[in-house]
Design a protein that fits this description.
The chain is an all-alpha fold and 522 residues long. It contains 20 helices and no strands. The protein folds into 2 domains: 408 residues, Up-down Bundle (Sodium/glucose cotransporter), CATH 1.20.1730; 101 residues, no CATH class.
């Protein structure tokens, strides 16, 4: 079986359908509250699915099955931490956000510390989002390159990357520009249904192709240690324990902290939560999303296990593949019937577009609400604000596409066809999440810390993380970092920010006290 004309037709229909329904879902926008928050009237269950779709990328669709194919189910331990982290955000962060009727996550820092820190953290978010999502947009084309290569197409990889990046950005921009967050959320719901349906279809098809049936697969999986879900890591040395991301302790703690940072300090997610009708609706959406993500990862891991059974436990090298990431793509090309293969590739594109649209809209909202409006004041008319917001949306779409194209040129053009995109994107996110989480914790938990102390702590946290995260981003920063599991990066960064912030605040109090005593003696 090869990728046929029918499959390409399915992809064209999908892209056309996304454009049409995205525009239909846009509704009427009258001001920036409509454009960026949907008038705070979006149902909680739609926000729930939008949150899940936003944090699901194409790499999730391809790489998570690869994790199970070459390993086991211990990756699922991280999702236990995700649920715990969402509980913390729901009952510590969200009440403060809703109490102030905030429109961005960084507005809280502005009210708590001052406008300078609000701008600094918002700008940090923007730089992070451009770099990390530029990588993710580039990586969205990786499955297409693999599928076309396995199907026998001779197109140069760089051309495929460029075409995929431009088409995905153009289609996503059409409905994101017009409809704002309302169009983005409702299309996320549709795209979640598409990629989840595609994954379930893949499970059913693989099950139908297992030569020895379920019992034979089960025996093979057990013999290969594939069913292991919990790993305590107590048999490891301390250094190895801290370097292993998938032990129960590092996975749960790291997953919880990552979830607190990503869902409590990142405008990408916070924007959706603020678009619900009430605090209770926002909490329901966020907490339930943790369980949906757990199910989703279990589904993708199951695909990897079933592929392991289908290919008889052969290594990727024995199958003639470069990495385990190519195993699912090979199955799509060789085993899935014409039409259905196109549907599953459409599901992969859906995962990419849901993340891209959310990123574009959140960048525009942070630019308008955290940077532009505070500088210009409240003098603009609602119509003028809306027009500027749309232009900012368009501009950020171009910037993200440009970042992805540059990354494609640097990696593929240099002859490195399979870059470490997952590790690079993860490293970038972890680098800033630690600093952002630390500043938010200072603002939420320590009332006497002022803006100077928080800013100093933020700078110190980013400086320390530059060394800690250096390994995963060595494509940009040559050298090695600490032998530390990626699940613990954010913990280190946030502890440094809180420690330095509290230390500087305490030192200033001591200095003021000494100065007061000296002046008293005079």
């Amino acid at each position: 079986m090869v990728f046929t004309g029918l499959d390409f037709l399915v992809l064209v229909i999908y892209l056309a359908g996304v454009t049409y329904f995205g525009l239909k879902a846009a509704g009427r926008q009258r001001h920036t509250t409509d454009y960026f928050l949907g008038g705070r009237q979006i149902p909680w269950w739609a926000v729930l699915l939008s949150v899940v779709a936003t944090e699901t990328s194409t790499l999730t669709f391809i790489s998570i099955p690869a994790v199970a194919y070459k390993g086991n189910l211990t990756f699922l331990q991280i999702t236990f931490g995700y649920i715990l982290g969402r509980l913390v955000v729901s009952f510590v962060f969200l009440p403060r956000f809703f109490k102030g009727e905030m429109a961005t996550a960084y507005e809280f820092l502005g009210q708590r510390f001052g406008l300078k820190l609000r701008r600094l953290t918002s700008a940090t978010f923007m730089v992070t989002r451009v770099l990390a999502d530029g990588v993710r947009l580039f990586a969205s084309a990786i499955p297409l390159v693999i599928i076309l290569k396995l199907a026998g197409f001779k197109w140069p990889a760089l051309q495929v990357y460029f075409l995929a990046i431009i088409v995905l950005t153009a289609v996503t921009l059409i409905y994101t520009y017009k409809g704002g967050i309302r169009a983005v959320v409702w299309m996320d719901v549709v795209q979640w249904a598409i990629y989840t349906g595609g994954a379930l279809a893949a499970v059913g098809i693989i099950l139908g192709h297992l030569a020895g049936g379920w019992s034979s697969f089960w025996q093979l999986a057990r013999a290969g240690g594939k069913l292991k879900m919990i790993s305590t890591g107590f048999n490891l040395s301390l250094a190895d324990f801290l370097a292993e991301p998938y032990t129960l302790i590092t996975a749960v703690i790291g997953g919880a902290i990552f979830s607190v940072a990503s869902h409590g300090t990142d405008q990408l997610i916070v924007q959706r939560l603020l678009a619900t009708r009430s605090l209770r609706s926002s909490q329901k959406a966020l907490i339930t999303s943790g369980f949906v993500v757990c199910f989703q990862y279990a589904l993708f891991l199951a695909i990897g296990l079933l592929l392991f059974g289908f290919y008889g436990g052969q290594s990727p090298v024995a199958l003639g593949l470069a990495t385990a990431d190519e195993v699912f793509a090979r199955f799509i090309v060789e085993q899935i019937p014409a039409g259905l293969a196109g549907l599953i590739v459409a599901a992969i594109l859906a995962a990419a577009m849901s993340t891209l649209s959310s990123s574009i809209n959140s960048l525009a909202s942070a630019t308008m609400l955290d940077l532009y409006k505070p500088l210009r004041g409240e003098n603009l008319s609602p119509q003028r604000e809306l027009k500027l917001s749309r232009w900012m949306t368009f501009g950020w779409g171009i910037v993200l596409a440009g970042a992805a194209l540059v990354f494609a040129l640097l990696q593929v053009g240099a002859g490195r066809e399979r870059p470490a995109a997952v590790e690079l994107g993860l490293g970038i996110a972890s680098y800033t999440y630690g600093g952002l989480l630390g500043v938010f914790l200072l603002g939420l938990l320590f009332k006497k810390v002022d803006e100077k102390a928080a800013a100093l702590g933020f700078g110190a946290g980013l400086t320390v993380l530059l060394f800690v995260v250096r390994g995963p981003v060595q494509a940009v920063l040559p050298g090695e970092g600490l032998g530390l599991a990626w699940t613990l990066y954010i913990l280190v960064g946030s502890l440094v920010v809180v420690g330095v912030g509290l230390g500087f605040s305490g030192l200033r109090k001591v200095m003021k006290s000494l100065k007061a005593r000296t002046e008293k003696k005079k």
